[in-house]
Amino acid sequence: MNTEKVAVSGPTVAVVSRGPITAMEQVRADRVIRSVLRRHHIESPASVRLARSGTFGATTIAQVNTRFRGTAIRVQAEGPGGFALTFAAERLDRQLDRLTGTAEPRWAPDPGRAAPAFVSDDRAIVRRKHCHLNVFDPVGATAAMDRMDFDAHLFTDAETGEDAVVYWAGPLGVRMARQRQLRPPLTATWRPLTMNPRPTRDFTEAEAITRLCAHGLPFLFFTDPSDRRGRLLYRRYDGDLGLVAGNDVPIE
Length: 252
Known about the structure:
5-stranded mixed beta sheet; 2 domains; alpha/beta; Double Stranded RNA Binding Domain; 4 helices; SHC Adaptor Protein; single chain
């Protein structure tokens, strides 16, 4: 893994590479992301991760992390060769337009990027995140999902205290699922959303992995019977799996 830092005026951009990423590509990443941050008057440091498993034309994953008004933001994109960085820079530019109020807040799936989803044998969980879940209403949870460029977001529902998820899906743009209560939120939202009509199922971790992989799902929200907490299992761009879980005590 290589890290490139270019000490010039403006926000500091650290470029981390994995695989056959050239020095020229690292310099381009610094220049392109720095340009986006300058356009939006962002002075916070940023990190860019470029990962490629094959030659220059092979699929590349580009991820950008920075902060906007003290809050972490993130974008991620994949594409052939250097296109991944271009796609990530465009996503960051649009995301900052929304955060600064130049564009309307997002409330719809992105037609230009499908969540990783394909049938496979069981894959390993290579990233686990156990954290205190933020308490949100659906609007706040959706805004957080957009800030971090997630396809689904695990949170604590402010209305019921249950673990819940929001995710990008039709027909209204956003769907929500709770562990137990299926009724729509009582609090008004500025845009309508769809409630998942089915109760969240109980799965062990191994059962959840098999279900996600065998059915080609991009993610799976489930309740772990060991502690009755919600879990979000998701497919990563590299084909392996990640898992998000709350480590605080749920409200019964």
